[in-house]
Specification:
The complex is a heterodimer of chains A (225) and B (256).
Chain A lengths: L1 H8 L1 H26 L9 H12 L1 H31 L15 H4 L1 H25 L4 E4 L2 E4 L1 H8 L3 H28 L8 H28 L1
Helix pairs in contact in A: 1-2, 2-4, 2-8, 2-9, 6-7, 6-8, 8-9
Chain B lengths: L2 E7 L8 E7 L8 H14 L22 E2 L2 E2 L20 E5 L8 E3 L2 E2 L2 H10 L19 H11 L6 H5 L6 H12 L8 H14 L10 H5 L7 H16 L11
Parallel strand pairs in B: 1-5
Antiparallel strand pairs in B: 1-2, 3-4, 3-5, 6-7
The chains are: A mainly alpha (225), B alpha+beta (256).
C-alpha cells in the first residue's frame, strides 16, 4: 500500500487524480445535458419530470451520483492542495514584472474559473437538487403516475432575468475552464501523441463551446418562450 | 541608445532586496545584454560601488549559467539564453527590469545570482546510466532508429538553466526533469535504471519544493533550447508505469 500512497501523494499522482476526476465530470456534463434538453420539449414538462423522478430513484443512478459528489469534492480538494503548493513554490518574493505572452490565460486561471463554477454549483444545487430531494414540490399526474413537478420549479426560476444571467455567465466560465481542462487532462495522464493530439485538441475545443452553449440555451429559451 | 535599468539588488540570502535604478547613456545596439551589464559594472567599480552580481560562463548559449528574468520573461524577449540576447532587441529610452529567477527551490545568493543546486540533486538522484567495465561496445551493435535517437538528443539538449522554473507560474521543474528522464528512457542504454530513475527523480523534485504542472506550456515557449512538453507527458507515463510495476522481487542489498 505504501507505494500506492506515494504515487497518489506525489505531484504527478495528484495531477493524475485531477485528470481522472475532471474527465469523469466531463462525462457527467454530457449525461446531464442530454437529460436537461428534455426541458425544451413542448409537452408541459412531462418527459423531464418522469426523467427527473427516474434519476432520483433508480438505485444504480443513485450509486453513480454519490461517486459524482465525491469526485467533485476530490477535484476541488486536490485543486486547493496543489494551488497552495504551487504558490509556495514561487518563494518569498514574486516577480515585479510578468508577461502573459507565453501561455494561454485560461491555463493560468483555472483556480479562479473553478471557484466561480463552485459558487454557481452552490446556487444551482440549492435551486433544483435540494428542492427535488427535500423541498416541498407540487406533484404532477401522468397516466395515474404521481411525480414531483420539477419542471414547474425550473420554469419559475428561469422566468427571472437575474437567474438566467447567472446561468449564462456561469456557462461562459465553464467553457473557459473546459477550454484548458479537457486537453490538459490528457497531458496529465501522459496521453500526448503526435497522431492523437489534433483530435484531442479539436474535440476538447468543440466540447468547450458546444456543451456550455447548449446548457446556456435552456434558460434563455425558457425565459423567452 | 539610452536605456534605464531597474535591477534587483540583494546583499545576501538573508537580507531583503530591492530594485535599484541605473540610467545608461551610451549603449551600443551591437552589445550583447551581458556586455551592457559589464559596462555598467565597470563604471560601478570605478565609483567604488558594489557591482551587480549575475551568473554567466560560456557566453555561447550552451552552458546554462546565465539566468536573468528580463521584462517579465526568462532570458528576455527572445527564445534564447541571455548571453545571446543583444541590445538591438530593445528600443531607445526603454526601461528594462531585471530580476533573478524566483522559486523557493532557487534561493537568491546575491543580486541576480540564484542557487540552482536543486537541479544537481535531482540529476544525482537518478539522471545517470550504468556503464559496465570491459571492452568498448561497437557503436552499431545497438540498433536505435534515427528518429528515436534524434528525440533523445533533443531532450538531451537541455542545459539546465532553469528558465522553465522561472517561466512557470507554479515554479515547476517538470520540463527540466522530464527532459532528463526522457533522454535515457528513449534509449536502450537507459533501460537498466529506467523505472528507478523516474521514481527517484520525481521524488527529489517534489522534495525540493518545486510546484506542480498545470500544463500552461509557458516553459516550452520560454525554453532557450526548445524542449517540448511532450517530454512532460512521457515522464507522466514513465512515472505511473514505474509506480505500478517496479520491482517484482523484494530488494536485497543495494550493492553500495
Amino acid at each position: 500500500m505504501n507505494w500506492f500512497i506515494k504515487l497518489l501523494s506525489s505531484t504527478l499522482g495528484r495531477k493524475l487524480l485531477m485528470a481522472f476526476t475532471g474527465l469523469f465530470l466531463i462525462l457527467f456534463l454530457v449525461v446531464h445535458l442530454i437529460g436537461n434538453l428534455q426541458l425544451l420539449k413542448d409537452d408541459g414538462g412531462q418527459a423531464f419530470n418522469i426523467y427527473a423522478q427516474f434519476m432520483t430513484s433508480n438505485p444504480l443512478i443513485k450509486a453513480v451520483s454519490y461517486g459524482n459528489y465525491f469526485f467533485i469534492l476530490l477535484h476541488i480538494g486536490l485543486a486547493i492542495g496543489l494551488n497552495r503548493k504551487n504558490r509556495a513554490a514561487r518563494g518569498p518574493e514574486s516577480y515585479a514584472v510578468s508577461s502573459g505572452k507565453s501561455s494561454h490565460w485560461t491555463s493560468r486561471n483555472m483556480g479562479i474559473l473553478g471557484t466561480f463554477i463552485l459558487i454557481f454549483l452552490v446556487i444551482h444545487l440549492k435551486g433544483f437538487w435540494y428542492e427535488m430531494h427535500w423541498g416541498g414540490i407540487a406533484t404532477a399526474n401522468y397516466d395515474g403516475k404521481e411525480v414531483k413537478d420539477l419542471y414547474a420549479v425550473v420554469k419559475e426560476a428561469y422566468s427571472q432575468i437575474w437567474y438566467v444571467l447567472v446561468y449564462v455567465i456561469s456557462m461562459l466560465l465553464l467553457a473557459f475552464h473546459l477550454w484548458h481542462g479537457f486537453s490538459s487532462a490528457f497531458q496529465s495522464l501522459g496521453l500526448n501523441h503526435l497522431k492523437y493530439n489534433p483530435v484531442i485538441s479539436f474535440v476538447g475545443k468543440a466540447f468547450a463551446i458546444i456543451v456550455p452553449a447548449l446548457f446556456a440555451l435552456i434558460p434563455i429559451w425558457m425565459f423567452l418562450y | 541608445m539610452k536605456v534605464t535599468l531597474k535591477v534587483w539588488r540583494q546583499k545576501d540570502a538573508k537580507t531583503k532586496g530591492a530594485f535599484a535604478t541605473y540610467p545608461l547613456d551610451h549603449v551600443s545596439t551591437d552589445m550583447s545584454f551581458l556586455e551592457m551589464l559589464d559596462v555598467l559594472n565597470s563604471s560601478l567599480i570605478q565609483k567604488g560601488e558594489d557591482p551587480i552580481h549575475f551568473d554567466h560562463d560560456c557566453r555561447e548559449g550552451i552552458c546554462g549559467m546565465c539566468s536573468l528574468y528580463i521584462n517579465g520573461r526568462p532570458h528576455g524577449p527572445l527564445q534564447t539564453t541571455v548571453c545571446q540576447l543583444h541590445m538591438r532587441t530593445f528600443h531607445d529610452g526603454e526601461t528594462i527590469t531585471i530580476e533573478p529567477w524566483r522559486a523557493k527551490a532557487f534561493p537568491v545568493i546575491k543580486d541576480l545570482v540564484v542557487d540552482r543546486s536543486a537541479f544537481d540533486r535531482i540529476q544525482q538522484s537518478g539522471g545517470y546510466v550504468s556503464v559496465n567495465t570491459g571492452g568498448v561496445p561497437d557503436a552499431n551493435a545497438i540498433p536505435i532508429p534515427k528518429k528515436i535517437a534524434d528525440e533523445a538528443f533533443d531532450a538531451a539538449t537541455c542545459i539546465g538553466c532553469g528558465a522553465c522554473v522561472a517561466a512557470c507560474k507554479n515554479a515547476s521543474a517538470m520540463l527540466f526533469v522530464s527532459a532528463k528522464v526522457s533522454q535515457f528512457a528513449l534509449l536502450p542504454q537507459g533501460k537498466p535504471e529506467r523505472k528507478e530513475r523516474v521514481e527517484k527523480m520525481v521524488a527529489q523534485m517534489d522534495a525540493e519544493g518545486f510546484g506542480s504542472c498545470t500544463n500552461t506550456k509557458a516553459c516550452e515557449a520560454e525554453c532557450p533550447k526548445g524542449i517540448s512538453v511532450t517530454n512532460i507527458a512521457r515522464m507522466n507515463r514513465e512515472y505511473f508505469a514505474a509506480s505500478l510495476s517496479s520491482y517484482e522481487v523484494p530488494l536485497k542489498g543495494s550493492g553500495d
